[in-house]
Write a structure and sequence with these properties.
Keywords: Coiled coil. This is Molybdenum cofactor biosynthesis enzyme. This protein is of the alpha+beta class. Among the domains are: 417 residues, no CATH class; 70 residues, no CATH class. 57% of the residues lie in helices and 10% in strands. The protein is built from 22 helices and twelve strands. The strands form four sheets. The chain has a four-stranded antiparallel beta sheet. The longest helix has 78 residues. The protein is rod-shaped, with a radius of gyration of 50 Å. The N terminus and C terminus are likely disordered.
Length: 711
């Protein structure tokens, strides 16, 4: 019997204690290779199938971008409404300030009128913005669905055909309403308009009187020390009395000088002159004149000690007037004081200039000049004392500019004129301040409440977006990975995915850039001249207050005040400017949140499960549950969802049109539109593309869930 070439013991075909057989090695390699290629084919099928999820995510983000851009328009409209309110109130405030200055009153009236027009523009803008934003909002389901379908279509390679439909959560929203400014703003503007004529009249009265007062003060300043090194009180005091330093100061500006400077100088001058007085020659007459000058200096020193100057709260001053001649001397105590030596000669009384007169030796009484002029008196042959002797003491120095009394008298008259003018100016100034304060208080109240009348929106999609996406194209499972180890026949079936996204804040500053660029076109064309340009600049500056809050509002008011001619004699312009600045600074305007919104992919359950979700999302959640548990039963629910999307999205087509102008802003004679434009043929093309995508999705069967779990 022939023995076999080799024999295999039972159970030892693949394994032997002494090693592997050739046949076992071959079979092991074949099995390994088959497993490797089978796993690779499974991976390929899964990879091809999972691509639909990436497309669904992209479509979901595209749908979200539409609503994010809409929210930029909402915030832009909000910024315009707020800035127009602030422009109205700011222009009114600037106008009230300008009314306080005669040279700026014409501009003040125009600014108040501009404030009224800005308020009207705000109300008009509010109405048109409400209508325009609502019109665009109604189109959002359509526009978002078109954006999602367009992105899905753009991802089609040779063998794939993606279709998608987007659903917004919520899928509808109430119309956007823009509240009117409220009673406070209208009250403030009406108060300014009603008080304008009274403020102008009273400000003119105050300014005229203040100009007279300022002219009197200027003249007094020049006579006191402003004419230095020419003749003036300061120069005369230094020359005649040797006064220097703090007792005889020099001021270079009338603004730094006050009447009290001149009074203190005069009060110091006469004691100094009295202390240094000496005869200007020999003989009895020279000594007599010196003694009479001492009498005059002592009298002037005593008189000026009763002088005073009170600057605040109201100007009050008393500059004693010194006699300049004999007649005026008779009205003073120099005439009535019984201080002159009296003797008797030939039975008649005789008066002497001073006790040192040779003929006054041994006098036993004194008398006054008034008594001497009563009659029956003899004139001293030595000193020759008469009433005219005393009257002439100050006559020369009061009549020509080289005398101290000449300049002092000018200051005293100027002080009287200044006080009289200020007494006329102060009541008018108080009346202006009372009226302006009332108007500015109303403006402050209105400014503090502008934040109560903002534009807000919770549009469709504010809670998120759900996209149903399918690849209805054909892909061979072995394409690109053909192998004899795996027999692949047929095509990969329809693949479906669900994606969701929601809007999140992006602090990139894009929102602020959009607002700041609103007036770029006007800047390039050049702002109109005059007050129209002021109004436009004011509005453009206040747009930044939307982003920056109080700092920008304060800067705009400060710049507006700098542009007004507020220099006036009464000082009411500066006072009103400070009051307006203080009122505005107290508003405390907070900057708005300008973070742009960006769509971000999230778990679909978070969007569909929102408390703002509608019946569609409830059905979607139920669809996911049924699709996982009973894939072959999901088509009816899915078809109803697609039909619902068709109805809701197409309802917005008529509202979309080709271009939507949300509103137009009219400020300073310029019109600035806020417009959202669509591609030229977007409406009809998008309608066909969206309808086809929905038809494709409705035709799908139980393979809705694709190859990856819902998440």
């Amino acid at each position: 019997m022939r023995r076999p070439f080799f024999s295999v013991a039972p159970g030892r075909l693949l394994r032997d204690e002494s090693g592997l057989t050739t046949t076992g090695m071959v079979l092991a390699l074949l099995l390994t290779l088959s497993l490797v290629f089978s796993s690779a084919q499974v991976y390929r099928i899964q990879s091809v199938s999972s691509r639909v999820q990436s497309v669904a995510d992209a479509a979901s983000l595209a749908a979200g971008n539409v609503v994010a851009e809409f929210m930029i328009a909402v915030r832009l409209c909000d910024a315009v409404a707020l800035s127009l309110s602030l422009t109205s109130l700011t222009a009114t405030g600037l106008g009230v300030v300008a009314l306080c200055v005669p040279g700026a009153q014409a501009a003040g009236g125009k600014l108040i009128e501009s404030g009224q027009k800005a308020g009207q523009a705000r109300d008009k803008f509010s109405r048109t913005a409400s209508e325009g934003l609502t019109r665009v909002q109604k189109a959002l389901p359509f526009l978002s669905a078109v954006a999602a379908a367009s992105v899905a279509s753009a991802n089609n390679p040779e063998t794939s055909r993606y279709v998608a439909m987007a659903v917004l959560v919520p899928d509808s929203a109430p119309d956007i309403g823009v509240a009117a400014e409220g009673a406070a703003a209208a009250k403030a503007r009406d108060a300014a308009a009603s008080q304008a004529e009274d403020i102008k009249r009273l400000a003119n009265e105050a300014d005229a009187a203040s100009r007279e007062a300022n002219e009197a003060k200027r003249q007094a300043f020049e006579r006191d020390c402003g004419n230095r090194p020419g003749y003036c009180m300061q120069e005369r005091a230094e020359t005649l009395a040797g006064m220097k330093g703090s007792s005889n100061p020099v001021y270079s500006s009338v603004d730094a000088w006050s009447f009290s400077v001149a009074l203190r100088r005069a009060q110091a001058y006469y004691p100094a002159r009295l202390a240094s007085e000496a005869p200007d020659g020999q003989g009895v007459e020279a000594r007599a004149r010196s003694e009479l000058r001492k009498r005059f200096f002592a009298y002037a020193s005593e008189e000026l000690s009763r002088g005073y100057v009170v600057e605040k709260p109201e100007f009050r001053a008393y500059f004693p007037h010194l006699p300049k001649n004999t007649d005026e001397m008779r009205e003073t105590t120099l005439y009535t004081d019984a201080v002159y030596p009296c003797t008797t000669e030939d039975g008649l009384p005789m008066l002497h200039a001073w006790s040192g007169c040779p003929r006054a030796a041994g006098f036993s009484s004194t008398a006054s000049i008034a008594a001497m002029e009563g009659g029956g008196w003899k004139t001293c042959s030595e000193c020759g004392f008469t009433a005219a002797s005393m009257g002439k003491v100050a006559a020369a120095s009061s009549s020509i500019d080289n005398g101290f009394e000449y300049h002092y008298e000018a200051v005293a008259r100027a002080a009287d004129a200044y006080q009289e003018a200020m007494q006329r100016a102060e009541p008018a100034k108080r009346a202006v301040k009372d009226r302006v304060a009332d108007v500015l208080a109303a403006l402050k109240e209105a400014c503090s409440r502008v934040g109560d009348y903002r534009i807000t929106a919770r549009p469709p999609g504010s809670e998120g977006f759900v996209v149903l996406c399918a690849n209805v194209g054909t892909d061979a499972p072995a394409k690109g990975f053909e192998s004899t180890f795996v027999q692949a026949t047929g095509q990969v079936g329809t693949r479906v995915a669900v994606s969701a996204s929601t809007l999140v804040a992006d602090p990139s500053g894009e929102g602020g850039n959009v607002i700041s660029s609103l007036t770029d076109g006007l800047t390039q064309r050049g702002a109109p001249a005059g007050l129209a340009g002021v109004a436009l600049d004011c509005w453009a500056g206040l747009l930044s207050a939307y982003a920056n809050g109080q700092s920008s509002l304060t800067n705009v008011v400060r710049e507006g005040l700098d542009g007004l001619p507020l220099i006036g004699a009464s000082g009411l312009g500066d006072w009103a400017a400070d009051e307006l600045s203080g009122a505005v600074e107290a508003v405390g305007l907070q900057p708005a949140n300008l973070d742009a919104l960006r769509p971000a992919v999230v778990n679909a359950a978070h969007v569909a499960g929102s408390d703002k979700a509608d019946s569609f999302c409830a059905r979607l959640v139920e669809l996911k549950r049924q699709a996982v548990a009973h894939p072959l039963m999901s088509n009816g629910v899915f078809s109803s969802l697609a039909a619902s999307v068709r109805r809701d999205a197409f309802a917005g087509i008529d509202a979309a049109g080709g271009s939507v102008e949300v509103a137009s802003i009219d400020v300073g004679g310029e019109s600035v539109p806020i417009e959202i434009s669509l591609p030229p043929a977007a409406r009809e093309f998008a309608k066909g593309a969206l309808g086809e995508a929905i038809d494709q999705l409705v035709s799908l069967y139980a393979n809705v869930t694709g190859v990856r779990p819902w998440d």
